[in-house]
Design goal:
single chain; Hypothetical Protein Aq_1857, Chain: A; three-stranded mixed sheet; 9 strands; 12% helix; disordered C terminus
Length: 146
């Protein structure tokens, strides 16, 4: 990510030559987004003055389970980013986050308890009640208190 770390976020994931666990292999789309989430993302980008912007979705070490999701507004994609266009929205994923997000679905939930983007991730073997932190098989991450 060219914008650097956000306050409170850990370092982004990086592959290690000593990592014995292979990256997950998923043959479907990298990330999907529901119609509701795409509409919310598009409206949010327009409201923030970035009507041509993209929703950057990434994974960093941290959170109470080891990894946590992050989202930011991106004006443009970096050369090695993956850009997904779906349901009228554009999503940007950095190469270090691709293995952890492969096959994930982004939705927007609005109920009595919370309102916001939610990621349903088939790579998560467990997650925290906060919904923003998860563990992945074979990857420890960097757990931190919520």
């Amino acid at each position: 990510m060219s914008s650097g770390l956000l306050p409170g976020m850990g370092a982004t994931l990086s592959a290690s030559n000593n990592d014995p666990v292979p990256a997950p292999v998923y043959t479907g789309p990298l990330v999907t987004i529901t119609e509701r989430a795409a509409a919310k993302a598009t409206a949010l980008l327009a409201d923030k003055g970035h009507p041509d912007g993209m929703l950057r979705v990434f994974v960093v070490g941290g959170g109470c389970s080891g990894f946590q999701y992050g989202m930011a507004i991106a004006e443009q994609a970096d050369a090695d980013d993956t850009v997904i266009e779906a349901e009228g929205a554009r999503i940007v994923v950095d190469p270090d986050s691709v293995p952890m997000l492969s096959g994930a679905e982004i939705d927007f939930v609005e109920d009595l308890m919370k309102s916001g983007f939610t990621i349903y991730n088939p790579n998560a073997v467990s997650s925290c009640a906060c919904g923003s932190s998860f563990q992945a098989n074979g990857h420890e991450g960097t757990p931190r208190p919520c």
